[in-house]
Structures are given as C-alpha cells and as structure tokens.
Write a structure and sequence with these properties.
The complex is a heterotrimer of chains A (about 220), B (about 270) and C (about 260). Chain A is an all-alpha fold. Chain A has eight helices and no strands. Chain A has a single domain, classed as MetI-like fold, CATH 1.10.3720.10. Chain C has a six-stranded mixed β-sheet with strand order 7-8-9-3-10-11, with helices on both faces. Chain C has a five-stranded antiparallel β-sheet with strand order 2-1-4-5-6. Chain C is globular. The chains are: A mainly alpha (about 220), B alpha/beta (about 270), C alpha/beta (about 260).
C-alpha cells in the first residue's frame, strides 16, 4: 500500500501547544476539585464525628466506597450510569470534577478527622469553661491547629491529584495524558509522553512549593 | 488495558442489560425510536462521531493538532450530504459502546471492526472497508511465513481485534514462545525495533501507514490471520439513522466519491461498499 | 441559702461506669473563702471540680452556683440540669485553671487572654487588651505578651492561664492541681499569684498537694478520699487530726 500523505515530521511547537492545552484542562480540573473537595471533606469529617447513628452510618459507607474502589471505576460509573440507567445526560468535564471531588473529599475527611482527634481535648475544655460556643471553639481553636498539622498530608494528596487528572482520559476528557497519547500516535514517538511527564513534574513542583510556603508561614508557633 | 476492558465490559453488560431490560418490554417504543433517530439528528443539526483520536490513518491528530483521517473524510462527506454538521468527540476506546448507549455520541466511526459479538451490541452499516490482521517483522529477520515464527515472541495491542484473531488460531498461538500484550501499537513498534519482540500482529491498514510514514525496513508477511471489515456503529434502536448513513455511503460509492477519498489516503480504492 | 454562700454542693453522686467517683458528696463555700481540697489520687477531687464546671454531669444531687441552680433532683432522684442560657451564665461566673494549663498554642499570650472576653463578653478588642495588659503586669508577664505558649516556661504558662481566667471576671475560681505539672522551682511563682488573689478576697477552691501552701492560705481544708469528704475544717485542725485516714495521708507530707 502506498500512502499519499506527506511524512509527518515532529512539529515541536504544535505538539507542545497541544500538550499545553491538555495541561490547562488538567489545571482546571485540579483547582476545581481542590476548591470543592477541601470544604466538603471538612463537612464530611464533622458528620463522621456525629453521635447520631442515622448520620454516622451513611457517612461511613460513603467513606468506605470512595476509598475502597478504584477512582477510575468511579469516573466511569458517574459518566455512564446517569444516562444509561437514569436517562440523565451528563457533561464529561462536569462528571470528572464531580467524581474527583467526592473521591478526594473522602480522603480529606479522614485526614481532617485524624487532625481533629489529635488536638488535646483539654483545649476544648478550656474553651468551654471560658464560655466559647462549640462552633467558636471549632472554628477558632481547633481548626486552625488542625490545618497546620495536616498540611504535609494535604500536600501529598494534592500532588496525587495532579497526577490523577490523567484518569479523566477514560471518560474522554482531553487532558494532558490523552493529548500526549494522541501526539504519540501522530508522530510515532514517545517524546510527547516524556514532555507530558515534564509538564506533570512542573505542575507538581509548583504545588509542592506552595505548600512549603504555607508550612513555613504556619510555623510561627509550635505545639 | 485488559483490566480496563474487562471492567468496562462488565459495567457495559450491567448497564446495557438494565437498559435493554427496560427497553425490551416495549416494542412499540423501539419502533418509534427506530423512526426518529434520523429525525433527532436532523433537528439537532449535528452528528456526533466518537473516536479514539490516536488511530492513524483512520482518525488521528495531524501536525496542526486537528483531527483528521480516512474515516473523518468519509464522515465529513456523508454529513455534508445529510445536511448536518459533524462533531468529533474523542472518547476512550474501551468505553466506546458505553459512550454510544449513553447518548454522548451518535456513532462509532474509527476503524471499527465488525464482529458477531459486537453486532449484539451495535447496529452496523454495511462493511465499507476491508482489513486484515497481519504480522510485521524486521526486514533482516529472515521470517517469511507464520511457521517461521515458531518459538518467537509476538506482541500486539491488548483488547484489539488482533488479540481476538490470535485467540482463534490456537495452533499458531501455541507455537509461539511468548505473546506480549501492550497498551498500543506505537509501543509494539518500539518492541520490534528494540528486538524485545520478533513480530507484531495488527491491522494491515495501520501497519502499512506506520511503515511508510517512518521509512522503516519492516516487512508484512503474506499470510494473514484474519480478514476483517470495518463498519460504522450505531445504537441498536437507531435504524433510520443507520440506514441514512448506509445509503449515503452507497451513493458515494456509486458516484466515485468514495474511491476518490480512498485514493487520497491509500493511493487506490480499498473500499468494499456497493 | 445564706446570702454569702457562693457554691452549694448537696448530695452529689457521679460514677464512671462501674466506678463511683463521687458518693453523696456535700460541701458549701462562702464568698471570699479560700478552700483547699486535698486527698490521694482517685479520691474524686478533680471530678468534683469538673462537675461543678460542667465538664462532667452529676447523676444526682443539687448544685447551686452564685445563687443559680445548676442541677437538682427530679422525683426519681436523677439530676436534671438547667436550660442552656442558665448553664452558660453559670459557666461565665466561674473559672477553672487546669493542671496542664491548656493555653491555646496558636495564639500569642495576649490573644489567649483577650479571645474569650471579645468573643463571649462582646468586649471591644481595645478594652480587652487594656484589661489584658493590666493582668499581665500584675502577674509579671508583661514582656511575654507577644510570645507564644511554647516559648514560656511552665510557671509562666500557668500564670498566663490564670490571667486568661481572670480576664473573664469570674466570681470564683477553681484550681485543679495548678502546680502539679511544674518543676519544683517554678511552683513558687504560681503560688505567689494565688496568694495575691486571696489577698484580694477572690473566692477560690484549690485542689493541691502543696500542704504548706494549703495550710498557710486556706480558710478551710477539705480532705477527700474515695468520693467522700473524710474531714473538713481549719488547717490546724485538719493537720493535727486524730482521724486515722487523715493521719495516714498526711504522713506522706510530713517534713
């Protein structure tokens, strides 16, 4: 067979620009997920600590399922279950954000809970005796200290999230990894994959540097 | 890759069977759906084509980052004649039927091999192109027949029709030393180049494209493992839409447009639709 | 209830599961009194303070603070607690200083002291800071106002904790073994503060192991053992008691 197609030499600038498009998608996915899942995780953590069984049991179930099943399956479930079984059409980017958010919120919830439970109860007693309300105690005394304690773990999870954005490719989101795969097929070369790897590294370096700064800022006290 | 395919297959079976269970009970529903699938597309003004945009030469990205390919050109001509726009939706190939059934795409048009198992899930047009599963070896390997591959390593793309073809040639498979399943064909070519594998089993169409494009000294063996045909896949109920596209392809065959497009891509007419 | 009775604990019982920690306990404190509570560990001294400060709930009995009822028995003999507002106002009228200080580590000493007045008493920040400055001066901690708890010695932290309690203007302060977590050379500075509060006629209940201090400062000493009051009276009386258990306990503290 002959192909009357001109040989496709590697056009670096257009390959990189296509990868950058994918990177932008990945960054969008990352930010939306972080912004939504951090507060949601806190809410879930509070509910998890509730003494009401009707609240605690569904929450524990949610935590088990989210952390116990592969994220890739969750993505596919949220993508295909609504239209196929419920007849509700979905948008794939929205599904990706939703799926990542509920998944990461579960991990954050347990991280928060660990942090909350590590604050000496004596401080809460001191606050109580001074007349602070439970909400005031949580928001002003407990939570600021929890944040400082969990920053390294949150940084870890954030860096994992940057890499997990690649999973959105299974539901057809044109993020960095998928775009790199397309480029690989176009140019019959793994250079795009290496470049994508570099882009992930750069993104995560920024994330790591950010949390490092936050850690330093919060280091004005010990304990 | 195999795990993903297995899991998506299970998901697909679970979800599709629950949909079919709901749909099977009302045949009247199916008939009306059959009639309005074309109307729906015409009202929407767009046909959404689902593809894995990493499958040259059928559907892939060119160096201007546009999605192009033989299938794309066919689809553009068909939709032009239908009077609707064409929207290209990249999907994950392992979930192609799920995407189709959930309504995210209207058709799968991407070097989609027709098979009996797939016919149970997908409504195909007539075959528009012939393909074979062939073996590629290095030019200097001295291998010229399938028998020469005894005791050698063969690699292929996991979950592809190459894997199916190999499975149905039990004797040949047994004669091999090793079968390696990889995520995609580019990786397979890397193995061949690096001599980690002695041969690749893949679509002839794609193989010829890669070999020409990269000017490699690879040979395609004359003996093929399977003859296959490509078709365009639609939802099982979408009869009117499928018929319309089928008719358009036939018309294009009749007036020579099909041969023209084939010529541009392959230098000759490789289409089979009449 | 006599007009200068500030705390009344009457037939209060409290158990933790199988363990009866307070058994039908009764005591009363008058305004301006300094009462020391001594006794072996597990005698229920801390629990008594925690129950009065609402950190634990009594099962039965009557507790009344500054003229308001915290809890009293229903006709089945179970303690029924007052409504939320009353409970809160009672909480605000008394203070508790902990053995482990429990300062807020992420706040400066100044903020530790001003936070509750601002949040709970709705004072302005300036007003709260003025009060805080005075208290810090009085307690000898002025140069530490911008420091954080981790930068202070144990004695300084406890003094800061006392300042934090004083900032809320309580009518009565409870001290739960205020010097037990301190190195011996640091206890002096805290005892000095408590002494000065006594001079200002602050009503105080102090659980302590510092016998000399207790003897010197208190109007009354209560000796508790296994959830009941064994003996109570003026320090000289208790220290020279003929009661067997009292003598046994005090033996450990003889010089």
């Amino acid at each position: 067979m002959n192909f009357n197609v001109s040989l496709v030499a590697m056009d670096y600038s257009s390959m990189v620009s296509f990868l950058l498009e994918g990177t932008v998608k990945a960054v969008e996915l990352f930010f939306l997920t972080i912004v939504l899942s951090l507060p949601l995780g806190l809410l879930v953590a509070r509910l998890r600590l509730s003494k009401i069984m009707v609240v605690q049991i569904p929450i524990k179930l949610y935590l088990l399922i989210m952390r116990g099943t592969p994220l890739i399956l969750q993505l596919m479930f949220f993508m295909f279950f609504p239209p196929l079984v419920l007849g509700i059409p979905v948008d794939r980017f929205t599904v990706a954000v939703f799926s990542f958010t509920v998944n990461y919120a579960a991990y954050f919830a347990e991280i928060y809970r660990g942090g909350i439970e590590s604050i000496p109860v004596g401080q809460q007693e001191a606050a109580y005796v001074l007349g602070l309300s439970p909400l005031q105690t949580f928001m002003r005394i407990t939570l600021p200290q929890v944040v400082k304690r969990i920053i390294p773990t949150i940084a870890n999870e954030s860096m994992t999230l940057v890499k997990d954005t690649a999973l959105a490719s299974v539901i057809g989101v044109t993020e960095l990894f998928r775009n790199a795969e397309s480029m690989k097929a176009t140019y019959f070369s793994v250079v795009p994959i290496a470049v994508a790897g570099l882009f992930y590294l750069i993104m995560n370096s920024v994330v790591a540097a950010f949390y490092s700064r936050v850690e330093k800022k919060l280091n004005y006290y010990k304990g | 890759m195999k795990l993903k395919r297995g899991i998506s297959l299970i998901l697909a079976m679970l979800l599709t069977s629950s949909v079919l269970a709901a749909g099977c009970s009302a045949t009247a529903k199916t008939t009306s759906a059959a009639n309005d699938s074309l109307a729906k597309v015409k009202t929407a003004g767009t046909l959404i084509l689902g593809l894995d945009s990493a499958f040259p030469p059928m559907g892939f990205m060119n160096d201007k980052n546009e999605i192009v390919g033989f299938d794309i050109d066919l689809a553009r001509e068909v939709t032009k004649r239908m009077g609707v726009a064409l929207k290209l939706q990249p999907i994950d190939w392992d979930s192609n039927v799920l995407e189709l059934n959930s309504g995210n795409i209207d058709c799968i048009w991407n070097g989609f091999t027709i098979s009996d198992e797939r016919k149970a899930e997908v409504n195909f047009t007539d075959a528009y192109m012939q393909n074979r599963q062939v073996v590629i070896v290095r030019g200097d390997s001295g291998i010229t027949t399938l028998a020469d591959l005894a005791g050698k390593t063969l690699c292929l793309q996991a979950g592809s029709s190459a894997a199916d073809a190999l499975a149905s040639h039990a004797d040949f498979k047994a004669s091999l030393k090793n079968v390696v399943e990889l995520s995609d064909n580019v990786t397979a070519f890397m193995e061949l180049e690096g001599k980690t594998s002695d041969a690749i089993l893949m679509d002839e169409i794609v193989a010829a494209y890669y070999i020409t494009q990269n000017n490699k000294d690879y040979k395609i063996l004359d003996e093929s493992l399977a003859d296959e045909q490509y078709g365009v896949g639609f939802r099982l109920g979408d009869q009117s839409l499928r018929d319309e596209v089928n008719n358009q392809l036939k018309a294009m065959a009749a007036d020579g447009t099909l041969a023209e497009i084939s010529d541009t891509w392959f230098g000759k007419n490789v289409t089979v639709i009449k | 209830m006599p007009t200068d009775e500030i705390l009344s604990v009457s037939h209060v019982s409290k158990s933790f599961g199988e363990l009866d920690v307070l058994k039908d306990m009764s005591l009363s404190v008058s305004r301006g009194e300094v009462v020391s509570v001594i006794g072996p560990s597990g005698s229920g001294k801390s629990t008594l303070l925690r129950v009065v400060n609402q950190l634990e709930r009594a099962e039965s009995g009557l507790i009344s603070v500054c003229g308001r009822v915290l809890c009293q028995n229903d006709d089945k003999g179970h303690a029924v607690y007052a409504d939320k507002e009353t409970l809160k106002s009672i909480r605000l009228s008394i203070g508790l200083v902990f053995q482990s200080f429990h300062l807020f580590p992420h706040y400066s000493i100044l903020k530790n002291i001003t936070e509750a007045p601002v949040l709970v008493l709705k004072k302005s920040r300036e007003e709260a800071e003025d009060t805080a400055h005075e208290l810090l001066k009085k307690l000898g901690l002025s140069e530490k106002e911008s420091a954080f708890p981790y930068q202070l010695s144990g004695g300084q932290q406890q003094r800061a904790a006392i300042a934090r309690t004083l900032a809320m203007n309580p009518q009565m302060i409870f001290f739960d073994e205020p010097t037990s977590a301190l190195d011996p050379e640091l206890t002096g500075e805290v005892l000095k503060v408590i002494r000065s509060l006594a001079d200002e006629h602050m009503t105080m209940v102090v659980v302590t192991h510092e016998m000399a201090f207790a003897g010197e400062l208190s109007d009354r000493i209560i000796f508790m053992d296994q959830g009941v009051i064994i003996e109570e009276g003026a320090p000289e009386a208790v220290f020279s008691s003929d009661h067997e258990r009292t003598r046994q306990f005090l033996q450990h503290y003889s010089k």
